[in-house]
Amino acid sequence: MFFMLTVQAANALLQKPRYGCKIADHRAVLLGYIFITFALGTIGFAGNVKYTEMVWIDLRDSPGGPAALIENELDYWINLMALACYYIMEWFMEALLLHRCFIIWNWEKYIIIPMTTLFLAMVAMSILVLAESSGAVFYNINTQIAYLCIEVGITVIYTILVTSRLLSMRRQMKDILGQEHVRTYEAVVAMVIESAAFYSIVGIIFIITFAIHSNISNLVFLAISHIQGIAQLLIIIRVAQGRAYSSGTVHTGNGTSLEFNGVRRCSQHR
């Protein structure tokens, strides 16, 4: 699914936009983003597959057997490489969320400063996890819990900030133009909630199972980065198709600026 949505997002970005011209300005950046995250996700997945092969096939007769190999998983460079790829992939994905949050909040400093601080704390925690991994059992790295809480917290806060902002704008537009002109806001709010909800739920399950040292966390860990990547790709596809929020100038009653890609057509398509 991650691969198919990557192809679909790339195809949507490469198409000549029917609505709005803003997407052309960011096409190269978004294409770079989807290919980088796909490459990192694929390398991380391949590393996990290879390590699984080592546990159950190549090194199954080593002292302690597969149980010891799983417990000492961070002693193997291929597993550390996979972990590093997932962390870097998540940096890119969280950065994209923050960028969209800042656009919707019109780059207000009281939003930028705390959200950027959380992002930098998340990056620092992931680096500390890798630094503390030598000879350590993954479950015993307390920094990982802090990292997971910050990462999921950013997504939850992003969802709250974006939906509250859009709903506020929806009310303003409804007062000015009427009910028939606010459906775009409702669609974007639904998109934000749908794309973030699944990842947030899975992330909370991961935090709980990791904290109690449950083996379920291993299943969640192998999928969580790709789930987040899928959520981000769904947003990018909607952006490319002109069905998502973009920076621009549609003014509400109190001077707030807002534009959706579907509001205005490019001059060459008029």
Low-confidence stretches: 248-270
Number of strands: 2
Written as H for each helix and E for each strand, in order along the chain, the element string is: HHHHHHHHEE
Total number of helical segments?
Answer: 8
Termini, distance in Å? Answer: 36 Å
Please report which band the strand proportion falls in: under 5%, 5-15%, 15-25%, 25-35%, 35-45% or over 45%: under 5%
Which structural class fits the helix and strand makeup?
mainly alpha
State Rg. Answer: 21 Å
Count of structural domains: 1
Q: Per the principal axes of the C-alpha atoms, what is the gross shape?
A: elongated
Q: How can the largest sheet be summarized? A: 2 strands, antiparallel
Helix content: over 70%
Give the mean pLDDT. 79
Strand order of the largest sheet: 1-2
Transmembrane segments: 28-46, 76-98, 110-130, 145-167, 188-213, 219-237
Keywords: Membrane, Transmembrane, Transmembrane helix
